[in-house]
Amino acid sequence: MTCIRVLCIYSQTQYGRSLVLQILDLDKLVENLLKFINNKDITAKTAVGILDRFAGEQKFRVHFQGNFTTTFLPPFTSLLNNMPSVDLTVLPPCISMMASMTGDDIIRKKTASCQECWEAFLTAMDACAVSDQSSEAQDVLCALLGFMINISKDHTLAIEEKAIIITARCLKQLNSSDGGIITRTTGLLSNILPHSHAATEEAVQKGIVKKMITFLKAGGQTTTHFSIKTLAICTTASIQAREELVKLDKKLCTLVKLLRTGDEVVVGNAALSLGQCLEVPGAASSLLGSDIVMLLLKHAGGDASKTTVQRNTAIALGRLCTVEPGYVFTH
Length: 331
Fold this sequence. Notes:
331 residues, 22 helices, 0% strand, elongated
C-alpha cells in the first residue's frame, strides 16, 4: 500500500513520471498495478489513476506497443465481462486510461482488431442495460460508447464480423432517455455501419431513418454531426432508406435546412443524402419553387476546405437537373 501511494505521488508530476519511466521495470509495474483493479477499495481507483497518468506519456505508450494485447487487454476485458461483481465506479476511469493508451495508432488498431474486446464490449452493454445501479451503469455506458467510437474508426475484420450484433445493441439504446447515450450511440452507429452492408440494411429495416430525422430536427451540434453521417450512409446503401426519407421529410426540408449551415461536415453529408434521395420519383419535383439550385451552386462553386462538400453538392445539382428538367429552364 505504501508503494502505491508513493507511485501515486510520483505520477502526478511530469518530473516524477519521467523518473519512473527511466528507472522502473515498466512491464512489472503495469502487471502489479493491474492486479489492483479488481479490488473493491480505494487501491483500485488509485492504481487506475496512476496508469491513466502514465498512459498520457508517449514513451509509456510506445513501450507497450508490442505487448499491449497481452498486458492490458486481458484484465480490461475481464472487468467488462464481470461487471455485476466489480465496483462500477472503477470502470469509467479504467476506460479513460484505455482510451489514452489507444491514442497510439498501433495500440488502437490492435485493440480494434481484438475479437475478445468487442465481445466484452457487447457483454458490458448488456450488463448496463439490466443493471439496477442505473446512475453508475449509465456512467459506464457513456464512457464505453465513447471508447468504442474512437477505436471503430479503423476498418478491421473483428468489427466487420460484429457489426450486425453491435448495430442491434445500438438500435435498442436509441430509445434511451439519456441524451448523452443517444448521441454516443448514434456516433458509434455512424462508424460501425460503413463496415457492413448487412448491418446497414438491418438498421434501415428497424427504423433508423425515422430516428435520425427526429434527432436532426431536435438539433444539437454533435448529435447532428453523427445523425446526418448515419443518414448519408443509409441512403447511399439502401433504396428503402431513400424512399423512407423522402416520405418522412416533406419536401426534404430537413436536408435543405442542413445545407444552409456553415458546418462543412454537415453540409457534405446532407448533400450526399439529398443526391441519393433525388433518385426517388417525385423527390426532385417537390423542390420546385425553392432556392435549392442556388443553394447547391453556392456550395459547389465555393471555397470549402473539404472537397467532399463541393463534390457532393455538384453531384446533387447534376442529379436534380437530370431528374427534373424544369430546373434547367427556371434558373
